[in-house]
Amino acid sequence: MAQTFKVYTDEGVHNAIIRGLRLHGVDVLTAPEADMQGKDDVEHLELAKRLQRALFTRDVDYLVLSKTNLDHAGIIYARQDQPIGQCIRRILHLWNTMMTEDIAGRVIYLSSAQQIDS
C-alpha cells in the first residue's frame, strides 16, 4: 500500500521549517533526534534510506552525491536563500501529492519544483 513519504532533515535545516511541517502533520525526524550530529553526508543518506525517509537539505553537497550511484530514498533540496515559508509550502505540496515510492531515488529542487532522477 502506498504511503505519504516521511522526512529526514540534516543538521542545516532551520527549526522553523521543521515546526511548520510538523504543524501540518508531516512526520519529520531531525539529525539531532537521530543522534546523527557530525556525521558525514553519506551516513545521513544511508540512514534516510534505511528509514525510508526523503532527505530534506539546504546543503549543495547532496546534489553532488546524487550524481553518484549511491542509492537513496529521495532528496529534497532548497537553496539557502529560499524563504522558510516557501520551503514549507513546497514540501507540503509534495507531501500531499507524492508517495514514498514516487520520491525514492529522485532529487527535487524546491526552487523550481524541477524533479530529476539520480
* Tally of helical runs: 5
For the largest sheet, list the strands in their spatial order: 2-1-3-4-5-6
The total of beta strands comes to 6
Overall geometry: globular
CA distance, first residue to last residue: 24 Å
What structural category arises from helix and sheet content? Answer: alpha/beta
Strand count, sense and barrel status of the largest sheet are: 6 strands, mixed
Mean pLDDT figure: 91
The helix content, as a percent range, equals 25-40%
Strand content: 15-25%
Spans where pLDDT lies below 50 across 5 or more residues: 113-118
Radius of gyration: 13 Å
Order of helices and strands: EHEHEHEHHEE
Structure description:
This protein has 118 residues and is α/β, with parallel strands linked by helices. It is built from five helices and six strands; from the N terminus they run E-H-E-H-E-H-E-H-H-E-E. It is globular, with a radius of gyration of 13 Å.
